[in-house]
Amino acid sequence: MSAPRDLAALSREVATEAAALVREHAVGGVEVAATKSSDVDVVTAADRASEELLRARLMAARPHDAILGEEGEDRPGTSGVRWVLDPIDGTVNFLYGLPRHAVSVAAQVADDAAPDGWSTVAGTVLEVPTGSTWSAHLEDGQPVGARDGVPVRVRDPQPLAQMLVATGFSYDREVRRRQAESLVRLLPRVRDIRRLGSCALDLCLLASGHLDAYVEEGVNLWDHAAAALVARAAGARWELHTGASGRDLLVAAPAAAYDVFCEAVLEAGYAAPATSEG
């Protein structure tokens, strides 16, 4: 098992290669190759090619590691390290030629104390059109992170009414309806809402001080594995709750403002109702 710093360096290296490949695909025009959970949840040839490249590079460098990717089958490993890959986070943006899409690569280590048995120790999120790169790793057990080599830091905590909040919506139409209802209740209580189309980049922009908070139900591990570590390194707190539709609900904000924001999210109806035991 390598040190987190070395795993972070490898994550940056392979993410850079994958981003270059995605840019090449964009030059030739982008078309839908398949759909997944719904007819608007799309996959492009670039998604598949990017993940194939990431897997090949990681397997060559670390043949005994496990790999979990959005587009491919889970690969078991024996080293105690697992890579979590999102070959293009923000595929719909990529399809439409919009700039907010990224390659995300996270390294996790086996951890019996973690809910799913794995903890993220390193990761990179690379915004494909700009090349801007957020990377983080654990150093003496604490996360450290940077954007293009410059340390990241969240904005100073803001009152709820002055928070600029990012969110996203599910590809499932019924879940989207519930999200919209919750958003209508949250919107009057905050500065404004932004919907940029990439969970990974939303969390990184929170880390860089361009947003005050983030909430979304329906996120997957590959969406946030790397970016959540970057956010932690910048002074953010994040948690997964059970959303109103039963999917993972990710809530994030600067640590000092987290409780106030999370309370507003719960009051808006984003989370599943608490159940009593008896």
Radius of gyration: 18 Å
- Give the SSE string: HEEHEEHEEEEEEHEHEHEEH
Helix content: 25-40%
**What is the CATH T-level topology of the largest domain?**
Fructose-1,6-Bisphosphatase, Chain A, domain 1
The main sheet comes to: 7 strands, mixed
* Shape type: globular
Structural class comes to alpha+beta
Description:
With 278 residues, the protein is of the alpha+beta class. The chain has 2 domains: 148 residues, 2-Layer Sandwich (Fructose-1,6-Bisphosphatase, Chain A, domain 1), CATH 3.30.540; 108 residues, D-Maltodextrin-Binding Protein, domain 2 (3-Layer(aba) Sandwich). The chain has 7 helices and 14 strands. The strands form 3 sheets. It has a 7-stranded mixed beta sheet with strand order 3-4-5-6-7-8-9, sandwiched between helices. A 5-stranded mixed beta sheet has the order 11-10-12-14-13, with helices on both faces. A two-stranded antiparallel sheet has the order 1-2. Helix 1 runs antiparallel to helix 2 and helix 5 packs parallel to helix 6. The longest helix has 24 residues. The protein is globular.
Task: Provide a concise account of the structure shown.
This protein has 278 residues and is of the alpha+beta class.
Supply the key terms.
about 280 residues; alpha+beta; Fructose-1,6-Bisphosphatase, Chain A, domain 1; D-Maltodextrin-Binding Protein, domain 2; 2 domains; seven-stranded mixed sheet; five-stranded mixed sheet; 7 helices; about 35% helix; about 30% strand
Helix and strand topology:
Elements: H1 4-27, E1 32-35, E2 42-44, H2 45-61, E3 66-69, E4 81-89, H3 91-96, E5 102-110, E6 118-127, E7 133-139, E8 142-147, E9 150-151, E10 164-167, H4 173-186, E11 192-194, H5 199-207, E12 213-217, H6 221-233, E13 236-242, E14 248-254, H7 258-267
Parallel strand pairs: 3-4, 10-11, 10-12
Antiparallel strand pairs: 1-2, 4-5, 5-6, 6-7, 7-8, 8-9, 12-14, 13-14
Helix pairs in contact: 1-2, 5-6
